[in-house]
Amino acid sequence: MARLIDSNHHASLKDYERIAHLSNDVRDLREEAEMLLPKLQGRRVWMVNSTAHGGGVAELLPPLIAMLRELGVDANWLVMESDEDEFFRLTKQIHNLIHGAGDPDLGNGAHALYEKVSHSVAARLAEFVEPNDVLVIHDPQPLGAGALLRERMGLTAIWRCHIGLDEETPETIAAWEFLEQWAVKYDHTVFTAPEYIPRCLAGRATIIHPSIDPLSNKNRDLPVHKLAGILANGGLITATGPTLTPPFEERAQRLQRNGEWAPATEPEDLGLLFRPIVTQVSRWDRLKGWLPLMQGFVKMKEALKTNTLSEEERRPLDLARLVLAGPDPESVTDDPEGLEALKEVMDTYLSLDPELQDSIAVLSLPMTSPKNNALLVNALQRCSDIVVQNSVREGFGLTVTEAMWKRAAIVGSPAAGLRQQIRPDLDGRLVRDAHDTDDIARTLTELLLDQERRDAFGLSAQQRVHNEFLVFAHVRNWLRVLAETLDGRAAA
Ligand code: UDP
């Protein structure tokens, strides 16, 4: 029902300090920590979420916790567990509702089920925590358990909600009506954007942006030979000579014309190192806007048949390929919605003309080794001239942060989380709407024809991530929230 996770983070503050463009960030962090730490003395901090692998939260906790620890905070990570599948179906429905999607009717037994599981999770968490500790609960799954512990043990509790929508709809109202009784029990809450704070928590929330770790396997710099080695070992290109490292145990697969999965170098090399590449990497989820992206790219290619561009101008558009990459379906068999979303992507791809099928690659990335998966995503993003995130809804979108850090030119939808990151026409482009396939086609065409603009977007995007969305700012913000919440408790 609750498991202590050893996040096994690889880098120490000294490693970051050695890197020229990061050393000031570490210095600022140390200075601020020195000021704030006395307020936290002797308190243990427990971060609690519902999964140790997969998705944005599991991605950002390890470096956050490791840095807090190195600075002197006794920070720990617990994952709640439950074998009640119905409970996770319910919290998935609530998750979708907070994003404005799905059936607002949560069903008769929902409150009783949520309460029952929350009680048993709270009982397990109680074996770890003490009244003097600080509990940081992530997202709706462990929200109830945290509220119960706050009530029972009097410890300080903060709820960190990673999801949200910038408008109120019948769906969001249903979700917040369900969660309110638990959320209001917390000392404080944290959201990703001001627009996401529900009415019931107005005045009791702080904004903290998620962050990426510049030294993680997903984001670290890859010198050319490493990049090529990863692509070859991971099955995305064919090595023409011997490689230093052996092939990954599991390699990337590409959807073939007959509907089967085969090595990603079949039926021919994708051209990742030589062609203009447009990429989206995401979970297979309808809210990621896969279909309109594919249709927009198809429109761009089809327009080539009739437009009057010179040969030289046509070339980048002719050569461009779209890469749609997501997790190996074998790894998401417990996510029927995800498998359906992938099936829609596959069906749409299979319905295309062979020529268009050649210019689009639907890729399945192996998930059994988190390290190899992260390296493959890193390498793919670095091979991409344009990284798209065409989400219909997005709480934040770490995939965009990751690509901005790598100076890719970004095309985003106007989903709220992406607007937190991409300043339109400065760090990248925002299409009018995730479903506007004409605008997607137009935007991709313009950017593929304009290397200078892509470079300018990339430079600006990297600066923005450096200033706002690296783990250093994230840790500083958490130190402030922890200190202020404890101050608030003391004053009360
Ligand atoms: N991701 C990955 N492999 C995949 C698909 C996604 O490692 O095949 C990662 C991606 O790089 C990012 C995270 O999963 O770090 C997704 O976070 P994001 O905030 O973009 O969206 P979420 O999945 O939380 O909705």
TrEMBL record:
Q: Which domain of life is it from?
A: Bacteria
InterPro entries, A to Z: Glyco_trans_1, Trehalose_Metab_GTase, TreT_GT1
What the entry lists under Pfam families is as follows:
Glycos_transf_1, TreT_GT1
Q: What is this protein called?
A: Trehalose synthase
Keywords noted in UniProt: Carbohydrate metabolism, Glucose metabolism, Glycosyltransferase, Transferase
Q: What EC class is this?
A: transferase
Similarity comment text for this entry: Belongs to the glycosyltransferase group 1 family. Glycosyltransferase 4 subfamily.
Read off the PANTHER family from this record: SYNTHASE (CCG-9), PUTATIVE (AFU_ORTHOLOGUE AFUA_3G12100)-RELATED
Looking at the record, the residues that make up the Trehalose synthase N-terminal domain are 47-197
Q: Which parts of the sequence belong to the Glycosyl transferase family domain?
A: 376-463
**Enzyme nomenclature, EC number:** 2.4.1.245
Instruction: Tell me the subunit arrangement.
Output: Homodimer.
Q: Name one GO molecular function term.
A: trehalose synthase activity
